[in-house]
Amino acid sequence: MQRPARFAWRRWMSAAAAAAVVVIAVAAAWLAGLRLPEAGRFQSYANHTGDVAVLHLEDGTQVWLQDGTELRYAVGKGDGERIVRLDGEAYFEVRKNKGKPFVVSTPYLDVRVTGTKFNVNAYDDEPSVVASLVEGSVDITARSDGRVYRLTPGHSIALAKASGEVTYPPLNGDVVLAWKDNRLVFADDDIASLAKKIEKWYDVKVVYDPARFENSKFTVRLMEGERLDNLLDIIETALDAECSMRGDTLVITRRK
Fold first, then answer.
1. For 71-80, how does the pLDDT look when each residue is reduced to its tens digit (9 = 90+)?
2. SS3 per residue for 79-145
3. Would you say residue 68 has pLDDT above 70?
């Protein structure tokens, strides 16, 4: 099938973009201890680069931001905590400091640590907020009822937004953290999960009939810089489907 070349993976729009990440140095006021009003305590960085952005916070913490993610970070020490507010997905390597806990705040849960490595997926359009711990330990506080959950390395916790139900999905680090290295991994994904990932990574709208793909699963690991054309060829073979681009909309149709 002939497809437009412009639908190449948007994260690799040029060789220069593929070789570099965006490095942001956060203002030294992070540790200045300024007693600023709430409106002035937070600065924002929104990543719309089409790539992964890396923030180097003044306290030594590093944050990888998925494309389409916004992070607001505290300018002053506040009440002795280092605070960031997340909308989207980010991976954190927090510099250890027992005297100043590091808090990642989302509308549904807060993640509190003193020093550790973890991932938080808190997109507005996802049904759950998911925290995944790679190293160290974290305390998860549900905003709905104030309950606190302790997470240990190699595990994830998912909080359903609608019901408040908490589950512990298995952590497949290769899948959860693939985005950090500009890789896209599908592992036993259903059509809904497949469509969401394609929309986020390739900046297209995906249309399909859920009933036609009931119980269909999809597993593939894409190479860095994989074009959308190649992924669609794989989908067509794996799901016995027809993929066609109509403007910026991808239509996936089951053949049988």
1. 998 755 445 6
2. CCCEEEEEEEEEEEECCCCCCCCEEEECCCEEEEECCCEEEEEECCCCCEEEEEEEECCEEEEECCC
3. yes
